[in-house]
Amino acid sequence: QVLDGAGLDVDFHLLSPKGETLVFDERKSDGVHTVETEDGDYMFCFDNTFSTISEKVIFFELILDNMGEDGQDQEDWKKYVTGTDLLDMKLEDILESINSVKARLSKSVQIQTLLRAFEARDRNIQESNFDRVNFWSMVNLGVMVVVSALQVYMLKSLFEDKRKSRT
Q: What phi and psi, each to the nearest 5 degrees, are found at residue 4?
């Protein structure tokens, strides 16, 4: 998401480890992309070459789901548990509840981070508008002062007696 900068747009490229283009967005202000991954290094690029005059502030977040390590950790505890099937079932239920709460909490953190990014972008737009309104208000005030001084001068010149007086 582009938070600040002229036009609030940027190009985005995502390349796979094989060098194939997975995602290419031109002049977008925000976007969400989901990609099935494979082993290797991915490359992503935010490109602002079309707007060399203005700089941009970008917010991005990488979310990695279904990592292999989490699945192994969940299975490791099972080999140490001994007891009846009822005990295993209760532990399975507890683990499922904990994982559900964990997933919901991480989703909440993601949403709050995204909302903070939207807030930052909106704040930058508001501050830019505030500065623009103040500038044009001062220009308008200056024009009004000049016009009023000109009107006073013109009115005075209408009432001046330009004839030479005879005494």
A: -150, 150
Instruction: Specify the pLDDT at position 12.
Output: 87
Does residue 32 form part of some domain?
yes
Please say whether the beta carbons of 23 and 33 come within 8 A.
Answer: yes
* Domain extent for 106: 98-166
Number of folded domains that form the chain:
2
Which residue stretches of the chain are H helix?
A: 68-76, 85-159
Q: Which of 46, 48, 47, 44 is nearest to 15 (CA)?
A: 44
| pLDDT greater than 90 at residue 147 | yes
Domain assignment present for 91? no
Spatial CA neighbour of 35 closest among 68, 2, 62, 71: 62
